[in-house]
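Field log, afternoon session.

UNIT: design team B
ACTIVITY: writing a sequence onto a fixed backbone
BACKBONE:
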């Protein structure tokens, strides 16, 4: 999917479990990817959508998304992205 850049442009930006959410067993994961050509952006959005990730509005070539849910839903998505080479 990358054009010679590796996956250094794909990052897990934040993992949140505020006290109120933690009491409910909920957490939130932010993802960010940049320096994408049109085809990469489209493929990445489709892949992340399949994982259940929602998107924020962003400029062309950038994908910003987030995943909110219970730990048992968020951790497998986080593990999958880390296996795919996403970094912190």
């Amino acid at each position: 999917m990358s054009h010679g850049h590796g996956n250094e442009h794909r990052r897990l930006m934040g993992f949140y479990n505020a006290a109120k959410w933690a009491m409910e067993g909920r957490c939130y994961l932010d993802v960010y990817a940049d320096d994408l050509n049109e085809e990469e952006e489209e493929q990445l959005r489709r892949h992340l959508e399949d994982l259940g990730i929602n998107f924020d509005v962003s400029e062309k070539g950038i994908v910003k998304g987030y995943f909110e849910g219970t730990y048992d839903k968020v951790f497998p998505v986080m593990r999958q992205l880390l296996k795919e080479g996403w970094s912190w």
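LOG NOTE: The domain at 12-83 is CATH 3.30.70 (Alpha-Beta Plaits).
NEXT ACTIVITY: expression trials, pending approval
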